[in-house]
Amino acid sequence: MKHVSFRSVLRAASLAVILAVSGWALLPPASDRETPGSGRRTYGDEVRFVIRVSPGQQYMPGSVPFGIGDPLRGLSDVIEDFERRFPDTRIEVLTVPGVREYLVSLLSSGQAPDIINVNVEDVWIDVQKNWYVPLDPFLEAPNEFIREQGAPDAPGYHQWWDMFKYQAISRGKAAPDGKNYCLSYDMVETGVFYNKTIFQEAGVDVPKDWDEFMVMLKKLKDAGHTPLLMHSELFNDWCTDLFFDQLYYAILPGIDLYQDPSREPYLQGYLDDFEISFLFRQGFFTKDDPRYMEVWRIMKELRQYTNQNIATVDLVREFVTRKAAMVWNGSWFLYRLKADRHLGFDWGVFYLPQFTKNTSPYASETPMCVIGGAAVQFEVTNSAVSDTPPDMPFEERMATSERLKRVIQFLQFLCVPEQYARIVNEYECFLPNIVGVPVAPALKPFEEILERRYTTTKWVFTFDLKFAEIQRRLIELYLNGGISLDGFMDWQTGNIAYGVDNLFFRKKFDVDQLQRAWEEKSPLRAGMEGLPHGD
Amino acid sequence: MGTKAGSILSERMRFTLSCYALLLPSVLLLSIFVYIPVLWAFSKSLYQFEVGGESEFIGLRNFGEILWRDPIIWPSLLNMAIFTVIAVCIRLSIPVVVAKLIYSLPTERGRYYFRLAFLTPIVVPGVAVQLIWGGLIYADQGLLNELLQRVGLPQLAHGWLSDPRTALIACAMVGFPFVGGFEVLIYYAGLANIPQSVNEAALLEGCTGVRKFFMIDVPMIMSQLKLILILTIIGGVQGFEALFILTRGGPGFRTMVPGLWMYFNAFSFQRMGYACAIGVCLFLIIFTLTLLNIRYFRSTEELEGVR
To answer: Which terminus of chain B faces fewer neighbouring Cβ atoms within 10 Å, N or C?
Structure first.
């Protein structure tokens, strides 16, 4: 008999252990196995519809926000109720990585979840491809779950639209083609979270205007603190839009060339992509436009008071470990601070103050607008009509699809106040946008901020993704001293020119109509200072 | 006789056919997943083609944009050249020295353990390595900045990957001290393959130490050097995963390379036609460099009289 050495036994045992551990590591997480509605499963013949929903991280069943507290279950509870009501339907909740590349692949192949949560402005650029279902016909009809309650006064009894608390914001999310692709069940707003202890030590208070804000930032820096935490994305997105609005709001009457009656009540002079394009061809947003130059000058001024590394900074960690006095963040951050028992300092929230004529001669001297608005934004994708022939006209597919009807039923069920309250108020993150759902008391400051006017435009979403990516990179480079303002503007002008050309290639606009509006508004512009080409 | 010849022929034929039959699935799969997509990419480089959108034939306009209108392409090509030259210099030098040092160890046991030690890090996935460098070494509170603080040079601590002045070199330094196990193993095999007679002859002639290394060892492992050179050039032109993880080509475009720009155009900007055109250009660059390498860089076997 062959002699078996101790060494061989040890080797074999080690291999067995490694294999066993590897096998165990491959098992799905316990939360995936136990949470109803998550993961992809197989079902019996009684199940006609398997609807896939990607609600975003904020409401994902089983997840623990900021790693504090119990796992979320609000959405899975509502799903259970819906599945009990419709036994032929199963709702699968899944995570779609927040990577656009991934989503585009899914949408182009018709494999996307039926319901996804994406910023609707990101959807607008693809609406002509029939990747998304316009929701207007459903919103104009009653919500069947409210209807069955039999109270004609209840919002939703006549029109689903009536259930939304922030009407202007919700309707203002319509795409430039006039159709609505988005359901906003909740709202988000941003604010500056500040460490009260550091403020007291440095002898500073909440600023009333931008000049006071800059003085305060300097004091904090001199006291050895990082005054304000910012990520490069915030400079590119929130900061650009707020500064732009502060400088252009006063001249909007002369340059807002198109008013959409359905969006105007909320968007009030919003400059759409085709308006921006037309204005660019009139010399706006170039080196000849002093307001546009001021946006970047003021941003660079702010940069000196922010964290050194804006590319990979961990905003949460830096703030809770008291390395910084302030952080600009969304309402979701409130829960992180409130739930942390070991935080060890008091904190407050204020909103960014307005520019003055001292900040810039072109300041509109209007309160800082908001750039938040709709939080979770549900869109219905082309997967919802996958039970219809792909060669059929899209409107016909919408009208005949049984699957789409069930998807809409699920969204309507979710919208019933007693159902959505279970989701949105599970923790303090967003403000409910459904009439009858109470606002969590801690979120009241953000409710007040939300009352402000919406921004003039969202640059990140104005043109295509190439424009947005290049702008983000240029801002980062400029703010990090890698390029001068002059160099930045050379690049940015080329970038906008590319965006404009591409926009006109992809979508057809009535330039003559814009030209007429431009000429009609000429008298209004006559008294305005600092317009390009001395217009 | 005729029957025997026929039977041999048919046996040969059967053998040949069976070889082809066994090769067929691989060739088929290779065609479906490699050659057809490559041909498709060549044809789509002539189109303005957006995912899910309309496709329009535009001839060589995409190539015109690459050559004259895209402001990112030329800086990214320069970055690619810098990264590739640095990588070539590193991979053709440090691992050779390490392999020689291991080979020169007096005992086989010592050589074995050192080979093992240098080879083991290969099991760490490249992505993990990049994440470690990005998240632990170059981070604000990372190893490098902490070290600078400790040795009294806090003024040098900064965001290595976000500073436009240091991002490129910081990316190139990932992997320090550059003793990649794969290269060490290849060079070690080359050194081990040098005939004992050559080593003895060198010893008798008094050719030892550094002189032997450059006069005997390096020429004798020329095949290995050539292989690593080709692989490094191909990797340098094609590869972008490391930069995607570390900086996504930023800050600005300071660490952008054509491969990464191709990726962004294809999957972020949905400009598939343009991305295909960049891909075709990269193919041409790799093809040309490989041809030059084959033509002008002789391998060990081609060096006369060394074996």
So the answer is: N
